[in-house]
Design a protein that fits this description.
By secondary structure, the chain is an all-alpha fold. The chain is 81% helix and 1% strand.
Length: 328
């Protein structure tokens, strides 16, 4: 049976076939991603309308509408009842989880009960499965006692920490997205304040202007504008913004807004100073990443670029030497 050309003992036709398959899959994936892109504005507007309806329901809505909003939480009530029967609920734990959900951009506070339940259900399911597979069915007979113990411990601890890790990851991603657009938002707030707009109108204008470029920041500012128009105390709306965004920079902005509301100090000058500070911080973070780039590129250079260069440079010579030995 004749074989195709080889380089260093590897069939060239087989390698080309695999690379063609990977390229075809990448093209199909790119086409799917381009044709199924979703508009982030639609989801953001829907979330803001839901928050507006919730505030209206607490102020002017009828009794039937309140019952309609209450009936949506039957599943959460069941989970809460089960957790209460097993004495697994603590007020501090619930408030902390709900705060993390708000910081992750998830407005459904009842989801906190499902996350708390997952902390106890996942270790039972995944940990029990790991114990059965490792110790009873003897799925890995070559493993020693220590290795089996470590695998079982990782299954229990990892499944217990999985909901918290998932939630923490979403909080970090959303906080990073908000941090990127905060200097631009403050500049627009300064312009709106100097133009004579009120605070809630300025927040609403910034949310509309930056909604497409920074949807997370636009979501938070739009929600703050709604709460400024509905809540009795404007201070509470600013404090809610600081609670929903896990950033020291946002807390500084909130403190500035509260002080200007309380003492009547000029808002534009204070926001201009904060904007300059945030831009300097963003530039310092960019310079820090640029300084780390050579060290980060060392591993890809050794693993991917240098072997490719060796193959390109030494490959023809190796083929010629191989042909010489075969023909000789």
């Amino acid at each position: 049976m004749s074989s195709g050309p080889t380089i260093l003992g590897v069939d060239v036709i087989w390698v080309a076939t695999m690379l063609s398959a990977v390229a075809t899959f990448a093209v199909l994936l790119a086409i799917y991603a381009a044709t199924t892109v979703r508009d982030p504005m639609a989801r953001r507007v829907k979330a803001l309308n839901e928050r507006r309806e919730q505030l209206k329901a607490g102020i002017v809505a009828s009794t039937n509408k309140r019952k309609k909003l209450t009936n949506k939480n039957q599943a959460a009530d069941r989970v809460r009842g089960i957790l209460s029967n097993f004495r697994m609920l603590q007020d501090d734990q619930i408030k902390k989880t709900q705060t993390k959900l708000l910081q992750a951009g998830i407005r459904a506070k009842d989801l906190a009960y499902f996350i708390i339940a997952a902390r106890f259900v996942l270790p039972v399911v995944i940990g029990t499965t790991a114990v059965v597979c490792i110790y009873f069915t003897d799925m890995f007979p070559e493993w020693g006692a220590m290795k089996r113990y470590i695998a079982t411990a990782v299954a229990f601890i990892g499944s217990y920490k999985a909901p918290d890790v998932w939630l923490k990851n979403k909080v970090q991603k959303r906080s990073h997205a908000v941090r990127k657009g905060l200097p631009d938002a403050l500049d627009l707030l300064v312009i709106c304040a100097e133009a004579g707009l009120t605070v809630d109108a300025a927040f609403n204008r910034v949310a509309k202007e930056l909604g497409k470029a920074y949807p997370e920041l636009g979501d938070e500012f739009g929600l703050t504008a709604i709460e400024l128009g509905f809540l009795n105390e404007r201070r509470q709306a600013f404090e809610n913004l600081a609670t929903r965004v896990d950033l020291d920079a946002v807390r500084g902005v909130v403190t500035t807004m509260i002080q200007t509301e309380k003492y009547g100090t000029p808002l534009a000058s204070a926001l201009r100073v904060l904007s300059a500070e945030f831009r300097n911080e963003r530039m310092m973070r960019a310079e820090e990443k640029a300084a780390r780039l050579p060290a980060i590129m060392t591993v890809p250079l050794i693993l991917f670029i240098l072997p490719t260069l060796f193959i390109v440079i030494l490959g023809p010579a190796a083929c010629s030497i191989n042909d010489s030995f075969i023909n000789g």
